[in-house]
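Page 47, continued from p. 46.
Same chain as before, 140 aa.
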Amino acid sequence: MVRAGDNGEVPNPWQAQLRALGAFIRAQRQLADLSLREMAALTRISNAYLSQIERGLHQPSLTVLRAIAEGLGLTTEQLLAQAGWAQASDAGPADASADVPAEAPAASTEDSIRCDPRLTETQREALLGVYRSFIEGETR
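Result:
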């Protein structure tokens, strides 16, 4: 657990990254239609600690990330990639997002689509194609 004093905030260089990870975990939990309590029971992590992780207040350990990933039906690598601690391993040569700058909103939306455990690979590709066609239509 990383803390930077009495206010419980994480040091500034990590703050944005931890908030993004927390937002990703929260979004995946909501997509899985799990309450915070249900997720806590599933992962054996307290709901208070999960809430703090989702708000970017704590840097979870690898053990905690593994439990969260398992509870969400994701791989640990997907969570580590979202945290910026590993490269995403599921992006294949057909991945057209390589042309998109990292700061563009499309990257996080496309990552969310790729990581949604409820979609089949065919559904993911179809949804990504539709999404990209909308984005390309906005820039013209």
